[in-house]
Amino acid sequence: MSFLKNFGKSVDSAVKKTVERSKDLSEIARLNSDIVKLKAKIEMEYSEIGENAYKAYSEGVENVKMSESLEIIKDLFAQIEEKKEEILVVKGITICPQCGAELDMICVYCGTCGTKIDR
Ligand SMILES: [Zn+2]
After folding, report:
1. Rg for the chain (alpha carbons), in Å?
2. Reduced to 3 states, what is the DSSP secondary structure of residue 94?
3. Which pLDDT score is estimated for 2?
4. 109: CA distance to ligand 1 center in Å?
5. Average pLDDT in the 36-52 region?
């Protein structure tokens, strides 16, 4: 009887793990699609800069919109970095600050360079 009980429990936890895993995968897919959208916005700002630069040049005026676009691009890049970090957290991965190797969250030392990983 207790065997059946335990069997039921292990099936339960296997199902739970599968659900968590697919949740993780859809979360990662969502974050990746956010990154694609942010990159598209950056491309738009780049083209905006070019257009404004040419407009200003042809009209013989100062390009005042340039720094505005540059600030927007800087912010978009920061958002992409945040999304990338979120993906690592969902995957349970941390990055070695010394060599940049991808490590499991539970690692105490980097397997590549031996650096101690601080939490
Ligand atoms: Zn390392």
Report:
1. 23
2. strand
3. 58
4. 8
5. 96
